[in-house]
Amino acid sequence: MMMKKILAVCFVFISAFAFAQEKPDALKMYVEGNYAQAIKVCESEIAATPNRIDSYVVLCWALVANKQYSVAEQRASDGLAIGPNDLRLVESLGEAKYYLGKNKEALALFERYIAGISDSASRVGVAFYYMGEIYIRQAKYQHADISLTAAVQKEPLLDRWWARLGYAREMAKNNVLAMAAYDKALELNPSQHDALAGKRRIEKNTR
After folding, report:
1. Could you tell me how far CA 176 lies from the centroid of its own chain?
2. CA 126 to CA 114: how far, in whole Å?
3. CA 202 to CA 168: how far, in whole Å?
4. Could you report how far apart the first and last alpha carbons of the chain are, in Å?
5. CA–CA separation, 106 vs 147, rounded Å?
6. What pLDDT, on the 0 to 100 scale, is given for residue 72?
7. Residue 173, helix vs strand vs coil
8. pTM for the complete prediction?
9. What CA–CA distance (Å, rounded) separates 90 from 88?
10. pLDDT at residue 90 greater than cutoff 80
11. What angle (nearest 5°) sits at the alpha carbon of residue 167, between those of residues 175 and 92?
12. Nearest residue to 124 (alpha-carbon basis) of 97, 153, 166, 157
């Protein structure tokens, strides 16, 4: 009888371990680029545990990456209704609103994120980058220069960000600094189209 009880307990532990091992990992799916599957897993987790903030966070990352911006906007808002101080959701909501063209709302969210998050947080550079892009949309090129400079300080190996910094400086008539940014973009990627085009424009206009 005792042996049967021991075997039954062992079976329960083994089954629980197997279940844990087989449980889908939404974050891993997101990192690997399996956005649709990550979304599905997160929605299942939220259905089972509605207050699970981490599931909302990964869900919104995957939705933005999958270009489902309207859904991301709604689900980030849903998550913030549960955890109003979760800055990861604030940043995701900012990205969704950026892609939906809601520049003023997005800018306020990115500012809130940067003001509240650790300077070493992984998406600080991303937030500065989007702020820079919004300022370019608004033709506030000096502001864009400041934000994009902060972005490339956080993520110095992204050639597109350097090219966009060059463009902001070019539009602000800071040609020397614009050329420096374009040169950095081309150092990282010699075929960077926007940087090549920017350099040609400056060279043509300064002859």
Report:
1. 30
2. 10
3. 13
4. 96
5. 14
6. 98
7. coil
8. 0.86
9. 5
10. yes
11. 145
12. 153
